[in-house]
Amino acid sequence: MVARGLPRNVPKAVARYQDRPNRGQRCGRCMHFIEPGGCEIVTGRISPQGWCRYFEAMA
Ligand code: SF4
């Protein structure tokens, strides 16, 4: 992930984080989600039902 130059410590507002899914995309299915409530990109508590602009589907 670091090799790809992923951003880190991004505030929720900058990431346009929301606490609900976006068209079927949600944190619980994103490769950046860290169980049970974190994210390797966005700071703060992250809901598995949330979403942000950095969403990338799990492989
Ligand atoms: S959708 Fe955004 S906040 Fe949610 S896990 Fe992925 S990168 Fe983190």
UniProtKB/TrEMBL annotation:
The keyword Nucleotide-binding does not apply. One of its GO terms (molecular function) is metal ion binding. Keywords: 4Fe-4S, Electron transport, Iron, Iron-sulfur, Metal-binding, Transport. This is High potential iron-sulfur proteins family profile domain-containing protein. The keyword Membrane does not apply. Residues 1-59 form the High potential iron-sulfur proteins family profile domain. One of its GO terms (biological process) is aerobic electron transport chain. Transmembrane segments: none annotated. It comes from Microvirga vignae. Coiled coil: none annotated. Gene3D superfamilies: High potential iron-sulphur protein. Signal peptide: none annotated.
